[in-house]
Amino acid sequence: MNQGWTYCDRITNKTHDLSVLDYYTQRYPHSSRADWEQRIASGQVLLNGMPTTATVLLKAEHQLTYQRPPWQEPEVLLEFNVLHEDADLLVIAKPSGLPVLPGGGFLQNTLLWQLQQRYPESPPVPIHRLGRGTSGLMLLARSSAARASLSQQMRDRQIRKTYRALASGTTLPDCFTITQPIGKVSYAPLGYLYAATPDGLPAHSECHVLRRNQTHTLVEVTILTGRPHQIRIHLAASGFPLVGDPLYGAGGTPLSLAATCSGSSPVPGDCGYHLHALQLSFVHPITGQPISHRCPPPAMLE
């Protein structure tokens, strides 16, 4: 069991005049209305530090807290390898299955929590993220100066990230570019998720084929932008979703319940796909020296 968690929400002008129950139902749709009603009635939800009821109307600047009791998290592989460490940054190799940030039932069984235990005085901050099912290289800052510099390198597209992916189908061109915009779309289980959408933010992936077999294709992908789930969405949008991806189907949008046959809606943190952050290149934020790391891929992606 973990230690439980307290979720804090400050009411804004956009969310005022909702009832406490309506607020939680809309803000956290992963739980049902009945679940939130029971939590409020049992005293797990406080308004400005005091017990409240489901029908109380919220005003701007009100403070809500939900005191979630301890729960048993899914077991994951918590070990990760540190490939580079100095006073300003870390480069690590994350295993598939380990979430980077809390969410979806994970709190302590996350990379962020493990880093906080290992570096309690100044926990490293991720400069980019990997999906739970994605393995490979991640860059983290250990100082404020490094964080600012590396974040700027990300915005300026100076950090080069190359991945290996196993795509469905065999008719992919030998080399191709994907520029499908990626943005938020409505998705009932979570409220929204990222997918291919015409009015999304620009996204750019450069792809080339390494090997084909009878049903699948091994692809190397260099991304020039860092949109959430970019490679999964881009290859799916091109008609070649990742092998085993439980969420993104052809077109780069969520699979339907009928297609998944799982009885529940898939979410981005579900595993099963094959994606690995193979190579990472950047400029050291303090010394200015170029740094490049490569993380050997798992057998399926060799």
Can you give a write-up of this model?
- The chain has six helices and 18 strands.
- The protein starts with a strand and ends in an 8-residue tail after the last strand.
- The longest helix is centred in the middle third of the chain and has 12 residues, at 144-155.
- Helices cover 16% and strands 32% of the residues.
- Strands 5, 6, 7, 8, 9, 10, 13, 14, 17 and 18 form a ten-stranded mixed β-sheet that branches. The protein has a four-stranded antiparallel β-sheet with strand order 1-4-2-3. Strands 11-12 form a two-stranded antiparallel sheet.
- The radius of gyration is 21 Å and the shape is globular.
- Residues 257-261 have low confidence and may be disordered.
- The protein has three domains: 5-68, Structural Genomics Hypothetical 15.5 Kd Protein In mrcA-pckA Intergenic Region, Chain A (Roll); 74-156, Pseudouridine synthase, CATH 3.30.2350.10; 158-271, Pseudouridine synthase, CATH 3.30.2350.
- It has helices at 20-27, 33-41, 111-118, 144-155, 230-237, 257-260, and strands at residues 5-10, 45-47, 50-51, 63-68, 81-85, 89-94, 125-126, 135-141, 160-168, 175-178, 182-187, 191-196, 205-212, 216-223, 248-249, 253-254, 275-283, 290-294.
- The chain is α+β, with helices and mostly antiparallel strands.
